[in-house]
Write the structure tokens for this entry.
Amino acid sequence: MKKIQIINGPNLNLLGRREPGVYGAAPFEGFLEDLRSAYGGRAQIDYFQSNIEGELIDKIHETGFGYDGIILNAGAYTHTSIALQDAIRAVPAPVVEVHISNVHAREAFRHVSMIAAACRGVVCGFGLDSYRLALEGLLKE
Ligand code: DQA
């Protein structure tokens, strides 16, 4: 049984209500329940969300030495945070960067990721299924 931490960053607490045309109409909690049922025998999936950059870093430190992988949607901090890149580099657990939307098909500032180079891989553009695809990748490690 692998231990996987999902970390969602700023504004992702509003999934289901926030720009549904871009991020979908489904709240994350229901999706998480389905994911846990589907992978119950193979993965322990823990979930954390914060709008605060330092709390995301703390969670990477807390889980990055004991978990088998981290799935990280850093939201807009993806495009700005060298501190998150350093946190990812600081821990041995593989981190997968995920995005619900295809950031490369959006505004130019979303094309840049400050964290991708430190990550094991990147999944974007598949809606909430991006998280499941990242999980599949981590379970194959
Ligand atoms: C996002 C894409 C980011 O550019 C944006 O700031 C988000 C969500 C996504 O999941 O598509 O907050 O990470």
Notes: The domain at 29-99+114-141 is CATH 3.40.50.9100 (Rossmann fold). The chain has one domain: 29-99+114-141. Residues 11, 73, 75-76, 78, 99-101, 103, 110 surround DQA (CB under 6 Å). The two ends are 13 Å apart (CA to CA).
